[in-house]
Design brief:
With 214 residues, this protein is an alpha/beta fold. 49% of the residues lie in helices and 16% in strands. The longest helix has 15 residues, at 166-180.
Protein backbone atom coordinates (compact mmCIF):
# COMPACT_ATOMS: atom_id res chain seq x y z
CA UNK A 1 0.00 0.00 0.00
CA UNK A 2 1.33 3.40 -1.00
CA UNK A 3 1.51 5.85 1.92
CA UNK A 4 1.64 9.56 1.20
CA UNK A 5 1.72 11.56 4.43
CA UNK A 6 1.90 15.29 5.03
CA UNK A 7 2.82 16.54 8.51
CA UNK A 8 1.43 20.02 9.09
CA UNK A 9 2.43 22.26 11.96
CA UNK A 10 4.01 25.50 13.10
CA UNK A 11 7.77 26.04 13.12
CA UNK A 12 9.12 24.19 16.16
CA UNK A 13 6.20 21.74 16.35
CA UNK A 14 8.54 18.78 15.93
CA UNK A 15 7.44 17.76 12.44
CA UNK A 16 10.95 16.90 11.30
CA UNK A 17 11.58 14.57 14.23
CA UNK A 18 8.28 12.74 13.74
CA UNK A 19 8.76 12.57 9.96
CA UNK A 20 12.10 10.85 10.49
CA UNK A 21 10.54 8.30 12.85
CA UNK A 22 7.71 7.62 10.39
CA UNK A 23 10.23 7.20 7.60
CA UNK A 24 12.07 4.56 9.60
CA UNK A 25 8.84 2.78 10.61
CA UNK A 26 7.24 2.64 7.15
CA UNK A 27 10.40 2.47 5.06
CA UNK A 28 9.47 5.45 2.91
CA UNK A 29 11.53 8.63 2.39
CA UNK A 30 11.09 11.92 4.20
CA UNK A 31 10.68 14.68 1.63
CA UNK A 32 11.87 17.99 3.10
CA UNK A 33 11.81 21.06 0.87
CA UNK A 34 14.95 22.41 2.54
CA UNK A 35 16.83 19.17 1.89
CA UNK A 36 15.51 19.05 -1.69
CA UNK A 37 16.74 22.57 -2.41
CA UNK A 38 20.18 21.88 -0.96
CA UNK A 39 20.49 18.61 -2.88
CA UNK A 40 19.33 20.21 -6.13
CA UNK A 41 22.09 22.80 -5.87
CA UNK A 42 24.73 20.12 -5.36
CA UNK A 43 23.48 17.91 -8.21
CA UNK A 44 24.13 20.61 -10.79
CA UNK A 45 21.20 19.63 -13.01
CA UNK A 46 19.31 22.20 -15.07
CA UNK A 47 16.67 22.39 -12.33
CA UNK A 48 19.37 22.56 -9.66
CA UNK A 49 21.04 25.46 -11.45
CA UNK A 50 17.69 27.30 -11.51
CA UNK A 51 17.39 26.77 -7.76
CA UNK A 52 20.95 27.97 -7.15
CA UNK A 53 20.51 31.14 -9.20
CA UNK A 54 17.38 32.14 -7.26
CA UNK A 55 18.86 31.36 -3.84
CA UNK A 56 22.19 33.05 -4.61
CA UNK A 57 20.28 36.19 -5.59
CA UNK A 58 18.51 36.11 -2.22
CA UNK A 59 15.11 35.37 -3.74
CA UNK A 60 12.38 32.93 -2.81
CA UNK A 61 12.19 29.75 -4.84
CA UNK A 62 8.91 29.77 -6.76
CA UNK A 63 6.08 27.28 -6.27
CA UNK A 64 6.67 26.10 -9.84
CA UNK A 65 10.28 25.16 -9.12
CA UNK A 66 9.41 23.40 -5.85
CA UNK A 67 6.67 21.39 -7.57
CA UNK A 68 9.17 20.47 -10.30
CA UNK A 69 11.57 19.28 -7.58
CA UNK A 70 8.84 17.20 -5.93
CA UNK A 71 7.89 15.66 -9.29
CA UNK A 72 11.54 14.83 -9.94
CA UNK A 73 11.81 13.11 -6.55
CA UNK A 74 8.61 11.13 -7.02
CA UNK A 75 10.13 9.48 -10.07
CA UNK A 76 12.83 7.80 -7.96
CA UNK A 77 12.37 4.05 -7.34
CA UNK A 78 12.54 4.42 -3.54
CA UNK A 79 9.65 6.91 -3.61
CA UNK A 80 7.15 4.54 -5.21
CA UNK A 81 5.94 3.14 -1.88
CA UNK A 82 5.06 6.59 -0.62
CA UNK A 83 6.57 9.75 0.84
CA UNK A 84 6.41 11.81 4.01
CA UNK A 85 6.17 15.52 3.24
CA UNK A 86 7.80 17.87 5.73
CA UNK A 87 7.55 21.63 5.12
CA UNK A 88 5.52 21.51 1.91
CA UNK A 89 2.90 22.52 0.92
CA UNK A 90 2.79 25.81 2.83
CA UNK A 91 -0.04 27.57 0.97
CA UNK A 92 -3.35 26.76 -0.69
CA UNK A 93 -1.92 27.27 -4.23
CA UNK A 94 0.93 24.86 -3.39
CA UNK A 95 -1.55 22.30 -2.05
CA UNK A 96 -3.66 22.50 -5.20
CA UNK A 97 -0.58 22.11 -7.41
CA UNK A 98 0.52 19.11 -5.36
CA UNK A 99 -2.94 17.52 -5.63
CA UNK A 100 -2.80 17.95 -9.41
CA UNK A 101 0.67 16.37 -9.50
CA UNK A 102 -0.45 13.37 -7.43
CA UNK A 103 -3.49 12.90 -9.65
CA UNK A 104 -1.36 13.12 -12.78
CA UNK A 105 1.10 10.57 -11.44
CA UNK A 106 -1.61 8.20 -10.17
CA UNK A 107 -0.46 8.39 -6.57
CA UNK A 108 -2.65 7.75 -3.55
CA UNK A 109 -4.05 10.95 -1.97
CA UNK A 110 -2.26 12.55 0.96
CA UNK A 111 -3.17 11.77 4.54
CA UNK A 112 -2.67 15.03 6.43
CA UNK A 113 -1.84 15.13 10.14
CA UNK A 114 -1.41 18.38 12.06
CA UNK A 115 1.06 18.30 14.95
CA UNK A 116 -0.68 20.72 17.31
CA UNK A 117 1.46 22.66 19.80
CA UNK A 118 0.30 25.73 21.82
CA UNK A 119 1.85 29.05 20.75
CA UNK A 120 3.62 29.66 24.08
CA UNK A 121 5.34 26.27 23.79
CA UNK A 122 6.33 27.04 20.19
CA UNK A 123 7.97 30.28 21.37
CA UNK A 124 9.78 28.43 24.16
CA UNK A 125 11.11 25.78 21.79
CA UNK A 126 12.28 28.19 19.11
CA UNK A 127 13.82 30.72 21.49
CA UNK A 128 15.81 27.96 23.21
CA UNK A 129 17.03 26.29 20.02
CA UNK A 130 20.75 26.43 19.26
CA UNK A 131 23.04 24.91 16.66
CA UNK A 132 26.70 23.99 16.79
CA UNK A 133 28.72 25.86 14.18
CA UNK A 134 31.23 23.01 14.21
CA UNK A 135 29.22 19.77 13.94
CA UNK A 136 26.06 21.52 12.58
CA UNK A 137 23.74 19.60 14.95
CA UNK A 138 20.72 21.30 16.51
CA UNK A 139 20.23 21.44 20.29
CA UNK A 140 17.97 23.10 22.87
CA UNK A 141 19.29 24.87 25.95
CA UNK A 142 17.05 22.88 28.32
CA UNK A 143 15.40 20.06 26.37
CA UNK A 144 18.43 18.77 24.47
CA UNK A 145 21.73 20.36 25.54
CA UNK A 146 24.94 19.15 23.87
CA UNK A 147 27.14 16.57 25.53
CA UNK A 148 30.58 17.24 26.91
CA UNK A 149 32.24 16.68 23.56
CA UNK A 150 31.40 17.77 20.02
CA UNK A 151 31.18 15.21 17.21
CA UNK A 152 33.84 17.20 15.37
CA UNK A 153 36.16 17.20 18.40
CA UNK A 154 36.51 19.53 21.38
CA UNK A 155 33.29 21.09 22.66
CA UNK A 156 30.27 22.37 20.76
CA UNK A 157 30.25 26.04 19.83
CA UNK A 158 26.60 27.03 20.06
CA UNK A 159 24.95 29.89 18.21
CA UNK A 160 21.42 31.09 17.43
CA UNK A 161 20.26 30.64 13.84
CA UNK A 162 19.06 33.84 12.20
CA UNK A 163 15.52 32.48 11.86
CA UNK A 164 15.39 31.63 15.58
CA UNK A 165 16.02 35.19 16.75
CA UNK A 166 13.02 36.93 18.39
CA UNK A 167 12.04 39.14 15.44
CA UNK A 168 12.40 36.26 12.98
CA UNK A 169 10.32 33.94 15.18
CA UNK A 170 7.51 36.48 15.18
CA UNK A 171 7.62 36.84 11.40
CA UNK A 172 7.67 33.06 10.88
CA UNK A 173 4.65 32.52 13.10
CA UNK A 174 2.68 35.33 11.44
CA UNK A 175 3.46 33.83 8.03
CA UNK A 176 2.37 30.40 9.27
CA UNK A 177 -0.93 31.78 10.61
CA UNK A 178 -1.69 33.72 7.43
CA UNK A 179 -0.47 31.28 4.78
CA UNK A 180 -0.40 27.75 6.18
CA UNK A 181 -3.20 27.50 8.75
CA UNK A 182 -5.84 27.85 5.99
CA UNK A 183 -4.66 24.43 4.78
CA UNK A 184 -6.51 22.86 7.71
CA UNK A 185 -9.90 23.86 6.30
CA UNK A 186 -8.74 22.90 2.80
CA UNK A 187 -7.82 19.36 3.82
CA UNK A 188 -10.80 19.00 6.17
CA UNK A 189 -13.06 19.63 3.19
CA UNK A 190 -11.28 16.84 1.33
CA UNK A 191 -11.80 14.44 4.27
CA UNK A 192 -8.10 13.66 4.75
CA UNK A 193 -7.27 15.81 7.80
CA UNK A 194 -6.31 14.55 11.26
CA UNK A 195 -4.66 16.14 14.30
CA UNK A 196 -2.48 14.95 17.18
CA UNK A 197 -1.04 16.75 20.19
CA UNK A 198 2.59 17.72 19.70
CA UNK A 199 3.37 18.17 23.40
CA UNK A 200 4.82 15.53 25.68
CA UNK A 201 7.37 12.81 25.02
CA UNK A 202 8.50 12.18 21.45
CA UNK A 203 7.58 8.50 21.76
CA UNK A 204 4.04 9.35 22.90
CA UNK A 205 3.51 11.77 20.01
CA UNK A 206 4.78 9.12 17.62
CA UNK A 207 2.38 6.57 19.08
CA UNK A 208 -0.52 8.98 18.51
CA UNK A 209 0.56 9.42 14.89
CA UNK A 210 0.64 5.68 14.36
CA UNK A 211 -2.91 5.36 15.70
CA UNK A 212 -4.15 8.03 13.26
CA UNK A 213 -2.26 6.51 10.33
CA UNK A 214 -3.51 3.00 11.02
Amino acid sequence: MQRNIYLLGAPGAGKGTQAQLLSERFGIPQLSTGEMLRSARLEGTELGNRVASVMDAGGLVSDEIVIDLVEQRLQRPDHQGGVILDGFPRTIPQAKALDALFLRKGRSPLVVVAVDVPSDEIHRRLSGRRWCVRCKKTYHVTDNPPGESCESGGVCQLDVRSDDKPDAIGRRLVAYAEQTLPLIAYYQAKGVFHSVSGTGKIADIFASLLVVLS
